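Section 3.1: Structural characterization of target chains.
Under the original work plan, the team committed to producing a structural model for every single-chain target entering the pipeline before any wet-lab resources were allocated. The record below documents one such target. The sequence was received from the expression subgroup and is listed exactly as submitted; it comprises 192 residues.
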Amino acid sequence: GLNTPGAASATGLLDARLGSAVIRANEFNLGYAAASTGAATGVLRWNRTTPIVANAFYLSRGVGSGTLDLASGSTFNLNTGFLRLAYNDSNSAAGSALANLNLSTFDPTFSASVTNELSIGSKTVYGSASTANGTLVLGSNSTLSVGSTTTPANVYIGLNTTGAASASGLLDARQGSAVIRANEFNLGYAAA
């Protein structure tokens, strides 16, 4: 679901649980509404060991709504430079980027390798009144690797650089495995 002109709405669904799917993308957006009006909803249903490879992976961007639908027993692997959940970079006067990825509910096999940035709940366009609210809860079969010893990544959990509205983020890594090597690790950062 991509909506850039800002009118009406857009909805998209990719169900890749059967057949063959190989994705190598510059940007992978699940629910991206870029303009101040309109809506976008994106759903990805996935169950395969082949990783999605993307320079940037967005789950709910702008004031869009994205869902990563992973059933019990399914497998999801991601290699990305930027993993951004509830990343609001729109100029919208209303609405919210809302992403709630709770992997403990159905406990799929989930693996994400992030090289540059992990962002959960970020608001990045100055002066707009829309919000961002993101959650990532790891399950017992989850693996999250962020940065490396030679190239640490930036981590933003609740980032607001806009001077308006709000942004909130939650990373719950009490289950599974999480290794984070960070250059910057920001929890609840308001820059303006």
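The two ends are 31 Å apart (CA to CA).
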